[in-house]
């Protein structure tokens, strides 16, 4: 995809994972696959690799990224996951946080953060991000959804529904029942602690992680999008097979005990992976409001 074409900027924040990336692609590829497979809009995507120890390589990527921003070619941003810690200070992350704070989050463009992307946005906005006292949260996990996300004006979360074909009397109907729980792949041991930034609400919670995502709510003069930032602690872009291979990778690397691994593998093999529903949410969120109103 040419950098001269309007596009969604996928900011890749991890380096390849041996044995995983070769089979499934990197986190940016996984995200693009999710959005393409769950939407009807023909978004274009450009990946920008921002996790690198090579300063010259980073300079070039940032030059391309800033040029795309200056030329109004970027329609939205997606921040991927990473094995890095959002509270650490390697040079590439210090630079990225500055760029996120002073550029991305100041633009009137939709921003999506996934796992590490969620944590680094929260960190830049002043939240505490640190190791969880509960240890790893891995594999497909059931999230309790915060009802408030459905109350947003033109909420993209209304995509989290299940069609009911019959009403209580047995008559045909086309009602949509909104979910109060959702199953997503998790793969983290860092969490966002404490209160959320002003004008943000929580997406949901689990037993191990009370903040499973953040949703910004614009309370300004109406000239901006109602909602500019959506983040998820889980990985909607991970397929079940990828999740199982990642669990094995973590177990082989000594990051998970046998008990943790077997429990997570069982849940991942038996629970319904509903990441595709979050893919629909992301599609609706990224869609420009002018186009969305035309389609409604």
UniProtKB/TrEMBL annotation:
Protein name: Glutamine amidotransferase domain-containing protein
SUPFAM superfamilies named among the record's database cross-references: Class I glutamine amidotransferase-like (SSF52317)
Top-rank lineage group of the source organism: Eukaryota
All residue ranges annotated as the Glutamine amidotransferase domain in the record: 102-242
Stored PROSITE patterns: GATASE_TYPE_1
InterPro entries: ChyE-like, Class_I_gatase-like, GATASE
GO CC annotation, single: nucleus
């Amino acid at each position: 995809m040419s950098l001269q074409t309007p596009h969604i900027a996928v900011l890749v924040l991890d380096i390849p994972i041996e044995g995983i990336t070769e089979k499934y692609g990197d986190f940016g590829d996984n995200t693009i696959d999710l959005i393409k497979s769950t939407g009807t809009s023909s978004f274009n995507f450009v990946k920008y690799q921002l996790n690198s120890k090579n300063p010259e390589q980073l300079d070039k990527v940032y030059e391309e990224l800033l040029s795309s921003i200056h030329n109004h070619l970027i329609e939205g941003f997606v921040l991927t996951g990473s094995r890095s810690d959002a509270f650490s200070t390697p040079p590439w992350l210090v630079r990225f946080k500055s760029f996120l704070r002073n550029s991305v989050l100041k633009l009137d463009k939709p921003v999506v953060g996934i796992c590490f992307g969620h944590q680094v946005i929260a960190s830049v906005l002043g939240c505490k991000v640190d190791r969880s006292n509960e240890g790893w949260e891995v594999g497909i996990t059931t999230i309790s959804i915060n009802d408030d996300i459905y109350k947003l004006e033109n909420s993209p979360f209304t995509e989290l529904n299940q069609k009911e074909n019959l009403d209580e009397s047995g008559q045909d109907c086309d009602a949509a029942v909104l979910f109060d729980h959702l199953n997503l792949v998790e793969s983290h041991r860092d969490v966002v602690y404490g209160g959320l930034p002003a004008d943000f609400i929580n997406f949901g919670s689990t037993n191990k992680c009370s903040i499973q995502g953040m949703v910004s709510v614009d309370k300004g003069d109406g000239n901006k999008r109602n909602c500019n930032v959506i983040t998820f602690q889980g990985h909607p872009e991970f397929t079940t097979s990828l999740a199982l291979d990642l669990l094995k990778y973590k177990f082989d690397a000594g990051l998970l005990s046998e008990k943790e691994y077997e429990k997570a593998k069982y849940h991942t093999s038996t629970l319904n992976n509903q990441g595709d529903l979050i893919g629909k949410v992301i599609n609706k969120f990224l869609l420009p409001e002018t186009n969305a109103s035309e389609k409604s």
